Structure prediction request, 479 residues.
Amino acid sequence: MTEYEPVIGLETHIQLNTTTKIFCACKADSWYDPPNSNICPVCTGLPGVLPVLNRVVVEKAVLLAAAMHAEIRSLSYFDRKNYFYPDLPKGYQISQYDMSLARGGYFDLPMTQQGYVRHISITKLHIEEDAGKTKNEAGMRLIDFNRCGVPLVEMVTGPDLRSADEAAQYLMRLRQLLRWLGVSEADMEKAHLRCDANVSIRPRGASFLNPKTEIKNVNSIEAVRAAIDKEIERQVREVTAGRRIEAWTLEWDEDAGVLRKMRSKETEADYRYFREPDLLPIRLDDAWKQSILMDFPELPLERRARFIAQYGLPEYDADILTGERRLSDYFEAAVKAYGGDPKRVSNWLMNDVLRILNDRGIAVTELHLTPDYLVQIIRLVDAGTINNSTGKSLLQKVEETQRAPQEIVQSEGLARVNDDAAIRNVCQEVVAENPREVASYKAGKITLAAWFVGQVMRKMRGKADPSLARSILEELLKG
Ligand SMILES: [Zn+2]
Prediction:
């Protein structure tokens, strides 16, 4: 293994989260619908129909291209990619070939655990339509055209990844970015994000590329990792035995955990690309482009770096808090409202608010516990009005009852008792009720002091100020 270096490139198909398909008015996402229920003459390629481009597809693809630092063409074309397969009713797929929407670009991938950044070049980024789905069942070949015409962006990296781990990281970061930009749900289980991996090996330190195999049908991040590792092992074994690697297409069998040979690879020439005559080119003038990019957000990795620099957060916190855009917005709103140590807000958010989200299975935007409420609770704890554990249960109560923290503190009498007389009364009770412990304390077992404080706290349901209780108790026990 150490003699050889893996060379990996990933091809991803990203389903854009538009309402309708790319060239017709059919619903785009039919994951929960019966087969062939979202189809029409356009997406099933009946004779005499004309496709009409959905402009939202262009807008979402432009956002992604901008995030990839790609050059966005003001004039791009659609092409027909010809191949014959039962789930492709037209006999061609409308795609983009030599004059696609975007050119070039890169994605800097932080390998945070290992402490380096991998620069990944993007060699292709274009718009296309999806094909249908076939499945074999009870000796029949069944075809579902629901996916025909679903809008996709195909994005291909250069051969820049060096391990299965980097490939897995790339997909995780891409998924994060797609959701952040709001261009795709990026749910791999629902095939919103699909991945093929090109894998080859070469002697470590070499710069040439060997023939690669293409792994199809890897539908989860764990599958990508496992399939690539398996294929690297196989290639090393072959080369070590003096055999050549052939350019196969392999299919990952998730259940068996093995790769199977599908076919020898097609070349680009097999597809006989030519311009799509039924569609006009995409003219992306400056005004349109500006309106798309007007609200271009700060990207997750930029925000992560800023959280570290501006708020002094550890990398770990910054990573979790920028895992999702709405969560990072929530954090920032809370930090602004608080005005104190951002790490304190981060702790409350990561330990307690995230638990509420997980337990209830809700998104951060669905919380009744607003950033302002969170800050009010932290301030109540800071001021000593309530103790830490009351603060934590208050978070839950605000979420459950949808009432303001202060209101709950008052109506439930949660505020810590600082009243000397009230605490003194309870301390006297405790001393009177426990003559045996008092005797041992007086005989020199002073460690019992903590036990007495515990009794007072229990009687006052945690609301007493423990240091005040302790000094009163010490005074009483001395006498
Ligand atoms: Zn349709």
Notes: The CA atoms of residues 17 and 43 lie 17 Å apart. The chain has a mean pLDDT of 92. The pocket of zinc ion is lined by residues 21, 24, 26, 39-40, 42-43, 149 (CB under 6 Å).
